[in-house]
Protein: RNA-dependent RNA polymerase
Organism: Fusarium oxysporum NRRL 32931
Amino acid sequence: MGMQALNEREGNMSPSTIEPGRGLDVLDELPIHLALARWLVRSRHPFLSRKWAAFFIDEFKSKNAKVTPASEFAEERQVILFAEQGQGIESCVVSLAMLTQAQIPIRATCYRSTMLNWLLQTDQNLDQPYMKLFHRMSQGILSPGSVLVDFKWNLGMLIQIGLSKTTPTVVLEKKQLRNYLMDEESPTGNVMNDGIGRVSLALMRKVQHALGLDYLPSAIQGRIGSAKGIWVLDIGTQPSRIWIETYKSQEKWNCDWEDPQHRTLEILTRSAGLEIAQLNHQFISILESHVKHVNPPHYYTLFAQL
């Protein structure tokens, strides 16, 4: 996520107790899924000499995924935790103002609400639909400044942007950002550059050096501040200057570009040479179900050759 004071975000669950004064009898009165959600959100979970707070639930993607019958299907989720305090974390409490100022990186006590406010910049985005939805979620109103971990719709997508496994490369200056309020549209009003922007040759060379590549990428996928998408190399417009452009379709919330962490270009993937890949058989099945007038014998003969 790029935040200097952001501590480890994930950890394994371990038994913990409900905070003093709450009592286990409160959980006994709730359905099991609500009791589990309340225990996850309202408790601080001690593990590895630190206290962790749950702030997001995501799908669990197993590396050894197997096709199972519908009767045996079970939806698996993983809880993302944030270390607020404990061993290796200073006792002083980090404020939101401290996170937006350039300073020496520290590991200080940082509460879940402060971290999410830093990421989503709620004060500047109260008029956004996802923030209105967020405030209306009654289960999310746990205590002043607290948040619910099981986000849905746009709000969950925004937090996933912050959790994307990217590699920070170049910190840009504000004058090097070309933030356009409108997209490139066709005469009929269709957005022609949805999620796509350009970067200069000089900036792409810095990205190449930061990633240790022996070639110059023609395109990169990543994020900078609240903008995510794909940026393609532009060698014809001021190639010696460092600049990057963002468009309305790329920016997911109003971003405070004063924070150097929000001006850090983070790379998810980059263009590479062509190579042999495996064809997903499940994708073939989907195509088969949508194709009319298919010749079954001929189709299965080709499928067996894959």
User: Anything to note?
Assistant: DSSP finds nine helices and twelve strands in the chain. Residues 1-23, 135-153 have pLDDT under 50 and may be disordered. The longest strand covers residues 50-59. The two ends are 40 Å apart (CA to CA).
